[in-house]
Amino acid sequence: MRTAIIGNGVAGITVARLLREQDAQSDLDVFTRETFPYYARPQLIELLAGAIRQEALSFYPQDWYERQRMGVHYGETVHSIDPKTKELVLGGTRHAFDWLVIASGSDAFRPPIAHAELPGVFTLRTLADALAIKDYAALHGCENALVVGGGLLGLEAAHALRRIGINHVTVLEHNLRLLPRQLDAEGAHILQRILASKGLGIELGASCRSFGGDERVEKFLLEDGRSFPADLVLLSAGVRPALDFLAGSGIAINKGILSDDRLQTNIPQVLALGDVAEWQGKIWGIIPPILDQAPVVVSTILGGDRSYQGSVASNTLKVLGVDLLVAGVAQPSPGNLCEVRVANEDRQTYIKLVFEGVHLVGAICLGYKKLQAQLNRWVAEKKQMTVAEAHAIVDQNL
Ligand SMILES: Cc1cc2nc3c(=O)[nH]c(=O)nc-3n(C[C@H](O)[C@H](O)[C@H](O)COP(=O)(O)OP(=O)(O)OC[C@H]3O[C@@H](n4cnc5c(N)ncnc54)[C@H](O)[C@@H]3O)c2cc1C
């Protein structure tokens, strides 16, 4: 049996590792556009901040792939998939498979802002991106950075830029609050106050119209006409599934590759998981669901009967020393969910617990690191608790 995996990110490598653990014999090949061995993308923030060196990113020892008897094809872009011959079309060669796992992840989205092609305007998705940003900041002694996008990645990256000595870092968010996908208005307000008090510039409800500069980026212009200096720009406006190579393959896509509960696509023996896969209308875009999906992919290949039933999303973030957990259904739509919320503006803390009946299904926890792991676990197991018990937990931690 020959299995080919497109992608050497967390999805591809986890499938490869689990498959090899359960099947020592079959042929296993991993293809990646990148030229580096597997690394964890969250670590790129620490690399950008100068807290770790590139060598520290290597997740597996150099000979690991060899010992696992996997062929890893670095810098090898899959251009298309030929479903009739069951082959990957590479630059000049073809690779035959019996099973194909598509784990091609996402690409950073570049919003259509005029002159975004100027040197000094970056996105951050890969190790090569992080190294390029760091080198550029050092080479030009950058002093004024702009981060377009106040989501999780944007805030973490903004902090990393401050840590490498860029004095003025501004985050631009077109929504009226930070972390619009994770936080409610009250939590976002408190987070904003904390970040502002620590020197991060924040512009809410503002959109960038264009960048300016002669040879490289020097300034940005907002839709409202204001203009500010910027010698480094990071576009952090979300990601898009990496689907380009699927044209003509017959593989069904919507926003991502449509995958069923066994993570099969519409083409037999072709599976998809991770940031590129859309399951029940959802693309998670974070790592924990991938760790739930990978064993299902392996089970499907090996004839097992595991199915994927969704994941409880959770994010932990630490920006400028602020600990934040957002887990499960943290922003419920109006309905039969009930909330317990406590904010303390002076202490810059906020807790919100969301209940479906007597079950805890979501939480936001800003500033209480000790409570975060416990809340994360309770949300994952949908712990039963009364509203009085919830108030007691919150009160104990205030
Ligand atoms: C800086 C940063 C910080 C993050 N922090 C967190 C965090 O704290 N917590 C969290 O849960 N998530 C975080 N994420 C998101 C997380 O990294 C992604 O959800 C995860 O990497 C997705 O894994 P994946 O394997 O599906 O795709 P990817 O990691 O994107 O890997 C895709 C792989 O496919 C390859 N590929 C794509 N197209 C082709 C092609 N045509 N031919 C050959 N190879 C191809 C790529 O080279 C790559 O190897 C962060 C992301 C970034 C960029």
Protein model, in words:
This protein is of the alpha/beta class and 398 residues long. The chain has three domains: 2-42 and 57-107 and 239-301, 3-Layer(bba) Sandwich (FAD/NAD(P)-binding domain); 121-235, FAD/NAD(P)-binding domain (3-Layer(bba) Sandwich); 314-396, FAD/NAD-linked reductase, C-terminal dimerisation domain (Enolase-like, domain 1, 2-Layer Sandwich), CATH 3.30.390.30. 25% of the residues lie in helices and 28% in strands. It is built from nine helices and 25 strands. The strands form seven sheets. A five-stranded parallel β-sheet has the order 3-2-1-7-19, covered by helices on one side. Strands 9-16-10-11-12 form a five-stranded parallel β-sheet, with helices on one face. Strands 21-22-25-24-23 form a five-stranded antiparallel β-sheet, sandwiched between helices. A hairpin with a 4-residue loop joins strand 4 (80-82) and strand 5. Helix 1 runs parallel beside helix 7. The longest helix is centred in the C-terminal third of the chain and has 15 residues, at 287-301. The model has no long low-confidence stretch (mean pLDDT 92). The site of flavin-adenine dinucleotide has 33 residues, from helix 1, helix 2 and helix 7.
